[in-house]
Amino acid sequence: MIATVRSGIARGGIELRQTLTTWSDVFSYVFPTILLLGAIFFMRDAHVPGTDFSLGTQTLPSSFGMGIAFGGLMTVAQLLITDREDGTLLRAKATPNGMMGYLIGKVVTVGGMLLVSFLLQLVPGVFLVHGLHVTATGWLTLIWLVPLGLIATMPIGAVLGSLFESPRNMALLILPILGLVAISGIFYPITAMPGWLQAVGQCSPIYWLGLGMRSVFLPSSLAAVELGHSWRHWEVLGMLAFWAVVGLTLAPAFLRRMARRESGSAVEARRQRAMVAMGR
Prior knowledge:
Helix content: over 70%
Oligomer: single chain
Distance between the termini: 46 Å
Order of helices and strands: HHHHHHHHHHH
Largest sheet: none
Number of domains: 1
Structural class: mainly alpha
């Protein structure tokens, strides 16, 4: 088991290094960050409704939570789908304890990617907006919020990735998640939305990660504009724990089912379909 963990960590480190030295992958980090920071820059003079606090400043920590959710949901699903199509998953299945090492490697890879994305947003972000404030309580919140957020989203991302055989179907996954972002209070306070949208938004871990991050980086007075006029740390903890239990319950079954269906003929069939699609 120890050898498997070491192998998985080494695998994740190699994949992360390859990602950070590949121009197309680096661009996939930088370009969305530029768009996000640009939006925050133009929002800096707008105010949170009912206050004189900058809407841009409120949005920045919300985007940190969104980044964790995107990494856990979208990145994990995308990596799983890609590795399934090119045969990487099949090779892992054929190796003793290969699937366990594969999953550990993905955790390391995605965790490293999230750290890079976080720094790309935070470092220039502190120069664009004013009012970020982290207390000792905030640091303690961050210690449990980040790992719990990953546990709440990565297994769900693995479940979603197991449902698709081709990266070309990712739009079926991206559009609903973008819809959830729009109603989760990331770019505009959820309190300004209709009640039924508030209810739908709170069903998603995206909202709770955004709320948790706002509680870390924003002054305590800003809690007054949130639902319940509070940061609701217990609710954040409970909802993220709920999604973690759901994901950890479903993911093993879905991944075992996906692994059983992997074969050389299945990989070749997907390659042929990809070639036909590219030919069109």
